[in-house]
Structures are given as C-alpha cells and as structure tokens.
Amino acid sequence: MYFKVLFMSQQNQPIDSLQEVQDIKRLMERSSRFISLSGFSGVAAGLCALAGAAIARYGIFKEYYDLYDDRGYFINDAFADLKWKLIILAAAVFAAAFLSAFYFTWRRARNQGTSLWNFSSRRLFWNTMIPLAAGGLFIWGMLSYNQWMFVAPACLIFYGLALVNASKYTLTDIRYLGYCEIVLGLINMLWIGKGLYFWALGFGVLHIVYGIVMWLKYERN
User: Fold this and answer.
1) What is the CB neighbour count within 10 angstroms for residue 71?
2) Number of compact structural domains in the chain
3) How far apart are the first and last CA of the chain?
4) pLDDT tens digit string along 59-113?
5) The domain containing residue 140 runs over which residues?
6) For 187-206, how does the pLDDT look when each residue is reduced to its tens digit (9 = 90+)?
7) What is the distance between the alpha carbons of residues 205 and 45, in angstroms, rounded to a whole number?
8) Whether the Cβ atoms of residue 51 and residue 221 lie closer than 8 Å to each other
C-alpha cells in the first residue's frame, strides 16, 4: 500500500510541476507584457478605416479627378485644398479608431482585473508612438513639397514598423500584422496611383482579419 501511494505521488508530481511552471510563465508574461488588447479593437479600427476610405474615394477625390497635369501633379491650388480635406478626414478616422480601440481594450482589462495604464502599457505606448511620430513628420514633409505619391506607402510602412516594435511589449501576434503592413506598403510603391486601395486594404481589411483571429484565439472562451 505504501509503495502504491508513493508511486501515485511520483506520477502526479511532474504534472503539478508543469502546472507551476505554466503559472509562473503566465505571471511573468502579465508583468512584462500588456496582454489586454482586444480583438474587437482591430475590427472597430478596420471598419473606421474602410468608412474613411469610402468617404475619400466617393466624396472627396471625386471633385479632383480632372485637376492633374501631364506629370501627375495637381494644378493651381487644387492640392492644397485636397490636402487639408484629407488631413481632416484622416484625423477624424484616427480619432474614431483610437476611441473604439481604447474602449474595447479598457473593457477587456477591466474584465481581467488589470489596470489599463501600468508599466507594461506605458512601454507599449511609447514604443508604438516613436515610429508613428517619425512617420507622421516624414509624411508631413512630403506633403509640404507636394510629394503626395508616396504618402500611402509611407503610412503602411511606418505603421508596420510601429507594430513590429510594439510586439516586444504585448501579444507577439501583432508582429505578423506589422509584417503584412510593411510588405503591403512596399508593394504599393509599384502602383502609386492605387494608394487609397492599398490604404483601405492595410488599415481596413487586415485590421478586421487580425481582430477576428485575435478574438478567436484569446477571447472566445
């Protein structure tokens, strides 16, 4: 009887040890990474981007189709007018996407019993913002010199770099979304006139796909 009990305890010990290792790993991950990102945030951001692209394509750009010269540049003051309309639209889309992402992430953090603004989330925020701020200033410089052709590729590439950089401080799955954004931006450089469609694909469709995958993987249960 003694040997039977000893044998059973020895059998259960590796299982208990494995569970302890998994618990320690989970605790370490919670302390070093921000893991409260919600898949619904990606879906909401993607829908906002598609709505913005539709407004730009069928509302704003429609007025400027005939205002190009032979080199593909806007004539007269058409670009200045168009630029400010697109900047306002982009700011509105960003605000809507950010607020929706903030809400769903805050809701998931609350359900997990964690703080939304802690050491991990601060590291995630700054490591995301540095590439985004650099990209924003670079794009602003291009617009200042009427070099609008590479704006959409630059948006995708810098955003992809920001995601890859941020993946070190959150769920590693976001890295693959960053890779896709970078590749899409590089491909877009081969079809400059299709920038709006690549923009919609990168910020709209890819975000929705990513959000659904993240929800199925981490939140469904």
Assistant:
1) 5
2) 1
3) 42
4) 887 776 555 554 555 555 666 777 788 889 989 999 999 999 889 888 888 887 7
5) 39-219
6) 999 988 788 899 999 999 99
7) 10
8) no
